[in-house]
Amino acid sequence: xxQPPLYQVKAxxxxxxxxxxxxxxxELLQGGPLPVRALLADIGVEPSNLSQQLAVLRRSGIVVxxxxxxxxxxxxxxxxxxxxxxxxxxxxTVLLTDREGLLDQLREPEAPADIPTGAGALPEWAxxxxxxxxx
Length: 135
Description:
This protein has helices at 6-17, 20-29, 36-43, 47-60, 79-107, and strands at 34-35, 63-68, 71-76. It is mainly alpha-helical. It has a domain at 6-80: Orthogonal Bundle (Arc Repressor Mutant, subunit A), CATH 1.10.10.10. A hairpin with a 2-residue loop joins strand 2 and strand 3 (71-76).
């Protein structure tokens, strides 16, 4: 069976990351290994939901688990995931900053010069247009 193209593998990787609980788990694990109870306390989802999301992350190889007695600890498999999350944060900061700038522009009142009024306010090409419209 032929290997899928790299762009398809990348798309699958990003799809795997595309769940809020998984992203939150990865964010929390940046600080070091954590037990499930700590993840549950912070994320606030049902244990079965967290278990499913952890299984996806484990199967992908992004997260590893170790058992210390009765406690299972989860950790990032490597620092590259933390780098990816930091990069995503920088990208989102730029994107949202740009949007905030657009929102600020939209909130500004329009200058009166921008709105033509009175006789001669219409450009020459528009003069006489719409004369047959009902009034």
